[in-house]
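Sorry to interrupt, but I need a hand with the structure work. Can you supply me with one protein entry, sequence and fold together? No commentary is needed, just the two lines. Leave the record below and I will have a look.
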Amino acid sequence: MLETTTGNVVRSWVDGWVVSRSAAPPVVEPWGYTVDVGVAGHVTRHVLDATGGAVREADVRKVAGAVRAGGTWLKVFADPAVVAPWLGPDWWIDPEPGYLMTAPLAPAPAHRPTAPDGYRLRTWSRGGVIRVLVTGPDGALAARGQIAPTGATAVVDQIETSPGHQRRGLGSLVVRTLTTAAHDQGARTGVLAGTPDGHALYTALGWHVLAPLTSAKYQGPEGG
């Protein structure tokens, strides 16, 4: 299993995220990684590789101060209350922290999880990404998610349950199905950057928080 050190967990998350989102390979920087994403509102992202108390104010200010283009994101593995004063008014900062989380991946149980009555579960893989789709009785989207195995680790990404289908165990079904599939491909440790809403789900499934995550977006002077 992957040891939960700063360098390999953050790098594993970056490597899996770029596969999941079809982004450019990460460029290694002295302070972390730069990833070109190439979509409107999310052109490039900078990810610092330190976590918690190891995050240096000087590094955050240096990276943020060099940004001039709108649609540039900054990911810092520290609480927003700590990071916000280092960025300034040109940055929008998500006030709620995300979470860098890991979990060991288990092999498939004797009886693999199935969708509730009336729901349909489908799993497929393309371009190195495993995807799960759950549709409701009417065929509409009920839940979805994806995972990108990159060797011994796999990054869970874009887990979503539609509002009308929540509290039916669909999120757990999606995550368990994805992680089992990744284990089948040789991954032994899961990594993800969870939202506050997803924190309870992942914690209930045995995931552990390594560090809070600040997400910030450059908007330019006066939000322009």
About this structure: The two ends are 45 Å apart (CA to CA). The first strand starts at residue 27 and ends at 29.
